[in-house]
Amino acid sequence: MSLYILPAAKAYHFLDGPYVEYKGNVPVEKRDKLVRDLQAAFQEIVEEDVPTKIESLTLAEAELVCNRDSVDLSEYSEKDEIRIVTVAGWACPCGGTHVRSTADLKERKWNVNGTKSKKGVVRIKYGQNVE
Question: Which of 42, 25, 36, 34 is nearest to 2 (CA)?
């Protein structure tokens, strides 16, 4: 399986076209394989029925939990309480609504649907499977 670890940039998690964006680039010739690898990893996580963990943390605690280089906590101060969402061991600040477990995505027939890479941004599109 290909492994790309790119810094998170932004996300749009609404039903009319959800995606996540990362800073970086994926060469054209590697995009199809990346999508297949992401689809396989997504299905593994769905089958594992991984619970979503949501907690409010101080900046110091959030830095420990979100200890990957790609999580930017610079907008927060020591006084902030930061809402951290963790799924399958990956934690990040997020104020949105989340499924209780990855298994909920199986019932909803969700998967990774495609990717684009343009101007130093990689967009991963996801949502309900198109049949």
Answer: 34
**53-98: which CATH topology?**
Replication Terminator Protein; Chain A, domain 2 (3.30.54)
Strand partners of residue 114: 125
Region of 89 on the Ramachandran plot (φ > 0 left; ψ -120 to 50 alpha; else beta): left
1, 34 in Cβ contact below 8 A?
no
Q: How far is CA 125 from the centre of its chain?
A: 11
pLDDT in tens, 82-122: 999 998 888 889 888 888 999 988 888 889 999 999 999 99
pTM exceeds 0.70: yes
Which is nearest to 122 in space by CA: 2, 1, 16?
Answer: 2
Q: Give CA 48 to chain center in angstroms.
A: 17
| Alpha carbon 110 to chain centroid, angstroms | 14
